[in-house]
UniProtKB/TrEMBL annotation:
<dbReference type="Pfam" id="PF13279">
    <property type="entry name" value="4HBT_2"/>
</dbReference>
<dbReference type="InterPro" id="IPR029069">
    <property type="entry name" value="HotDog_dom_sf"/>
</dbReference>
<protein>
    <submittedName>
        <fullName>4-hydroxybenzoyl-CoA thioesterase</fullName>
    </submittedName>
</protein>
Length: 153
């Protein structure tokens, strides 16, 4: 099962007074992983973002299994769970990487809605084809698809 992987080394600024990682950072790393995926696999979508496309996060979650600390090296692994109409749901696993082992420390999920800005409003828009194609390389075992096809110009 293929996953998109983003490697991150935790800094002091991501920890709290106790010394462990503040929980909200896991959610930030989901966004960072998603951004790096776009930059590497669907850069044309980044251009669309400056032309009115919006990838609005509508749902996010994270389940924590173990604490993380400054200078821990983690791999955030992303897979596609579902495409449904204009929404994309991704799964995330957070793995602490050491020289001789990997430990699953958290698991999360994020759903984004593809929207288009039209004046002051935003309206649902189909998932860009380039993004769909890039995501298909990283489908989860329980992947579900229900996408409304795009109109051709």
């Amino acid at each position: 099962m293929l996953t998109y992987e983003y490697i991150h080394i935790i800094s002091f600024e991501e920890t709290n007074l106790v010394g462990n990682v503040y929980y909200v950072n896991h959610l930030r790393w989901q966004g960072r992983c998603r951004e790096m995926f776009l930059q590497e696999h669907a850069p044309c979508v980044l251009v669309e973002l400056s032309n009115g496309l919006a990838l609005a996060t509508v749902k996010v979650s994270c389940e924590y299994f173990s604490e993380l600390f400054a200078f821990d090296k983690i791999a955030i692994r992303m897979q596609l769970k579902e495409l449904k109409q204009n929404r994309i749901t991704m799964l995330f696993e957070y793995w602490r990487i050491t020289n001789d082992s990997q430990e699953l420390v958290a698991r999360g999920e994020q759903q984004v809605a593809c929207m288009r800005r039209q004046g002051k409003a935003t309206v649902a828009t189909p998932i860009p084809k380039a993004l769909q194609e890039a995501l298909y390389s990283y489908v989860a075992p329980d992947f579900n698809i229900h996408v409304i096809s795009q109109k051709s110009n």
